[in-house]
Predict the 3D structure of the following.
Amino acid sequence: MDPRQSQGRTVIRAGRVIDPSQSIDRVDDVTIVDGRIESVGPAAERPDRTIDAGGLIVCPGLIDMHVHLREPGGEEQETIETGTRAAAGGGFTAVACMPNTKPPIDNVDTLRAVLDKARSGAHCRVYPVAAMTVGQRGQVPVDMPALKAAGAIAFSDDGIGLDDDRVARAVFDRARPCDALLIQHCEVAALSAGGCVNQGRIAEQLGVAGIDPRAETEMLARDLDLLRGSPVRYHVAHVSTERAVDLVRRGKAEGLPVTAEVTVHHLALTEDAVLRQGANAKMKPPLRTEADVAACRRGLCDGTIDCIATDHAPHTAEAKERGLRDAPFGVVGLETAWPVSWGVLVETGRLDPAGLIDRMSCQPARILGLSDQGTLAAGTVADVTMLDATASWVLSANSLISKSNNSPFIGRHLVGRCVATLVAGVCRYVAEGSEGRFAQPG
Ligand code: DOR
């Protein structure tokens, strides 16, 4: 059987189907007809092909709203092809990719080039995020209506905070009439300049400059103020501090249109990881204190933080070997997001499996406005992830699909693994050794 076949009737048989969007958590079949979900329930008709999901979780495809695919301009780190292959391998059926490419995605031509590449060579859906300002220079807002019409899912200068209050106001003003989603990388440059890890104990121990946590919270507080005057859809990227979680909580309580994400690494690691992993634990915002990690976990579980993202940020080994001070910021995360989150949140009893799937699929779909995704409802696209919640493995650098291997989780014992990823009913990834599940007779 060809796992890439999408036409006809496919039955994913006898998996533990978890679809938080319909409050489903039971062993059942999922029937797909011509790339769309037909039903969750005992398969009625004889299918053209069967996928054996015995012992596996079957859920709406995972969605990562914060990924760096590096193309154009950073192909030595990642390409749309390798990054989406890594995404499919991690169980993701859709990713939103950030515009800090070379050149940045700040105009319709560059955006179209990314979309064209994705159409011809991606292994999952790709939704480009366009820059907020021309060249991501923080001075002139981009042409949002034109970029949105050409397919930009959101706007962000990710990697850089939008420092200038006047420009921030202009960006908000431009976003409102076209109902654009803004994704803010909250970082006041004056409070982070020169720093490479969190300000405090570890920075002092290593004798390096620290990044003040207020770099994040001051920009967030400023933006929440702007939202009070002029509401726009506003999403906070990679929340990392206790105070930022509090600010989002209060903003939501006030009714502001704010959503937020936390990365897997900010849920799993404290700043101490830098001592063990060096530059592979260097990213922006930096890993923080135990109190911050606890606040991020609490915020995610109580709904203050809406979803989990990876901020998959590939960098070459050569660049990361420059040492903590000089290495670039960022870590890869697409292939470890599910098992690391599972370990931190589900194995510890903080969330049930449906809660985790909600935050890795349903919520990102809602924030991005992808109403056909993050669900197994009848009639929606058959983006489906199959996961083995018991697979136990140790992450090694050379097992990663991504072109880069700058992961802080190398050597870590992980539980849980993606077995298969279907996009519009087409199998885009099958784990080695699981091909037999696709060879069942109808
Ligand atoms: O660590 C990071 N790396 N944070 C960002 O915001 C940007 C990213 C990158 O592009 O490498």
The first helix runs from residue 80 to 89. Residues 68, 100, 158-159, 185, 283-284, 311, 313, 328-330 surround DOR (CB under 6 Å). The first strand starts at residue 9 and ends at 19. The chain has a mean pLDDT of 97.
